[in-house]
Structures are given as structure tokens and as C-alpha cells.
Amino acid sequence: MDKDHAKAMGRPNGFTRIETSIFLVIGLTVSGVFTQPSPTVAAPQADDSAVAPRALASQAIKDLVHNFWTGSETEGHYLGVCNGSFLSAQAVGCMWEQAQSYNALYGWWKLSGDPEAHNRLVANWNWIKQVHPPEHWGTCGWHTPANYASDDTGWDAALAMQAYDVTHDPAALDSAKLAVACAYHRWGDGPLMEGIWYSDDHKVKSLYQATLALDALRIYEQSHDKLFLSYAQGSYDWMEHTLRRHDGLYWCDANPSGPIGTEHPDDIRMAHSIVFLEGAMAMGLLHYKFYLLTGDVAYKEKAIDGARAIVTKLVDQQGILMDDRDAWVNGFFAEEWATQVLPLSPELWNEGNAILRRTALSIARNDRTPDGHYGGDWCGPVDPMKSAWGREGKGSTPMQPQTNANAVDIILAAYSMVSQK
């Protein structure tokens, strides 16, 4: 979660997210991790357009596993981390941060069918079941074991739904149901069409709930329980009515007075933005899914309009996708958005393919350390003492698995475009 949504809760190691990141940055800069020459990634040649994206994706997954996995392929799991701070190999950590790494590995498995990835996904889910029993999934709020706020609950449930796809374990689907239902009961505000509060403080409602809406829709697709369809539709209607901008993007937050940021609508930049890439992609997927569900072409047109806004307004001057608001989650839906939304328009598919390919190459060349850690500045530099995400004091560094996973998500999205040909 980004700094603007920082949680008022104790950190397991006693330090804040930003303090921990500063210690990591200073120590690693002194040790030379960020000062060594960047690895050379060969530019794609005319005859290897199908090979380069897969090679980048394969290396990115190897990096993620090498740097953040503990234990064996069949009995291990991603390391416990909370608020960007490492705990220990045995620590539970924050589940939503596990979800970021799980999401990247799941995406690679869906694209490649890699049996090793499958084994790791099963092992990680088995570990999560041990440390997060059903009562963890069915409680939410600041001081609960996992579902601290609506966004965290959404990523937790997303992990469970991915685990269900991998393992067909009924406990995974049940866990997702418990989490989503808890979120809508705890943070719901009257009729579902009024959206849900971001957290217990009831200060803002947010585009971050799009993740929960997608979870609810996926649960409906699997269970045909119309309660979850109503959750998804309610959040969707509120976000469309309150957060949709004239340009096809979405305001990130709204308070009782309305959307936040209307006085500076073009304040869209890396590490600081009044819109939100992950949320915009999630809304594109919601449009697409409601289009499939209803056949109403209005949903399709909204998905295309949103995709057009992303490829025109959320890229920098080099044509590289911007990690605009939250380096810990921005890539979460990139691969699914690329494979489901962009094909709705051949023109946008071509443009999106070029942007994702360009961004993936930039991440590999400019936003990767020599030992395979990835930062939040997808155009570079990776050194957080020099990067926008480091300079802005947001606390997102290349030593955090969730920052890495979301850069890897973009590389996977670029590979997914090649796999569609």
C-alpha cells in the first residue's frame, strides 16, 4: 500500500516502513549492490522477437525465487515480510505481501505451464494454510492477523483464488469467500452501490476496492453465489459513478466531498499520482468480465476507453509505462489486462504490445541490480538513492519482494503479448 494509505499499526521489527528502507538502502549502497555496473541485456533482434520476452520472463522468475524463496521446491514458501521489512524464514509476515510474489509466480505458470512453478505454488499455499487458519480469513480490521484494510483483504483473497485455480483445494475457495464477505460487511456503507470504506478510519473510499470486486466476481464465476455478484456490481457501480474521469482513467480516492485531486487533475507521475495504474487495469478487467457476463457492448467500450487512457496517459516521454502510485502493487493485473483487455481493440493491442515490450526491456536493463533485484523506477535507475521511488521517500526499494514482484509482473505481461500471437 502506498504512503498516502499508510497504516497506523505497529511494525513487527519496531521500525516504520520508511526507516527500514533507509537502513537497507544505506547498507546496500555502501556494500556496492547498487554501484556495480548494470547487467547487459541484449537488445532484441529481428529474428528473436518471440524469444527475448520469454527469456526476460524466465530470468525474472528465477531472480524472484532465488532472492525471496526459502526451503525446497515442494515444501518451501516465499519469505515472511511485513510493510516491506523482512522478518525471518519462519515468520508469517503480511499475507498481502506474500500475494504479490505468489501472483507473479502464478502468472508465469499460467503462461509457461512450468511444473516447478506449479510445485512452488502448491507448497506456498500449503504453508499459508498452516499459518492462516479459517478464522484469520474471516476477520478483518486494523488489528486482525491478515485483512487489515480493504486493499489488503483484496490481495489476500486474490491469492486464495489463484491457489484454488492451481490446487482445486476447496479450502482456498472457502478462504476467499470468508475474506471478501468480511470486507463488505466491515467496510460497507449502506447500499452496496455506495462502495466500501478503505479502512476502519472511514476517511476515504478508494479505487483499491477494485481488487475486491474482481475477487467477488471470480468467486461468483466459480460458485454461482449471487451475493458475491452483488458485491462486485456494487463496488463497480460506485467506482464508475464517483471515480471515473472524463479521460477514461480513475481518481484513486474520494472522501465525503468527492474525488481527491480534482484541483490538479494532471498530477500524474512516478511515485506520486492522483490516479492509479493497478486500479485502472483492474477496472478494465471488470468491464471485460461484465461484458462477457451480460453481452452489453457498453462494458466493452469502457474497457477499450480505459485501455486507451492507460497507453496514452500512463507512459513517460520514452514510451515506458509509469509505476505511478504504488510500486508494491502496480503490476498486479498487468498480465491479465494484456491478455484479456488489449485484444478487444487491434489498434490498442499493437500499441500496448509495444509499450509493454519497451517497459520490460527497460526494467531488465535499467531497473535490475546485478544480483537480480528489481526496483520501482521501471525506466531506471534501480539505485533507491537516485530513483524517484527512493527520492520521494515512499519506502519502496529493490530489496523488497513486493517491489520486485510488480516489476516482474510487467515483464510477464510483455511475454504474454508474444504468447498470444
Q: What labels describe this entry?
A:
mainly alpha; 421 residues; three-stranded antiparallel sheet
Overall description:
The protein has 421 residues and is mainly alpha-helical. The chain has 15 helices and nine strands. The chain has helices at 17-31, 52-68, 95-112, 115-131, 134-137, 150-167, 170-187, 209-223, 226-242, 277-294, 297-313, 334-340, 346-366, 388-391, 401-419, and strands at residues 69-70, 77-78, 81-82, 85-86, 205-206, 253-255, 258-259, 268-269, 272-273. The strands form four sheets. A three-stranded antiparallel sheet has the order 5-6-7, with no helix packed on it. A hairpin with a 2-residue loop joins strand 3 and strand 4 (85-86).
The helix tally amounts to 15
Global structural class: mainly alpha
Q: What is the chain-wise order of helices and strands?
A: HHEEEEHHHHHEHHEEEEHHHHHH
- Round the mean pLDDT to the nearest integer and report it: 89
- Overall shape: it is globular
Please give the alpha-carbon distance between the first and last residues: 35 Å
Share of helical residues: 40-55%
Q: Give unreliable regions as ranges.
A: 7-48
Q: Please state the CA-atom Rg, rounded to the nearest Å.
A: 20 Å
Strand-residue fraction? under 5%
Count of strand segments: 9
Strands side by side in the biggest sheet: 5-6-7
Largest sheet: 3 strands, antiparallel
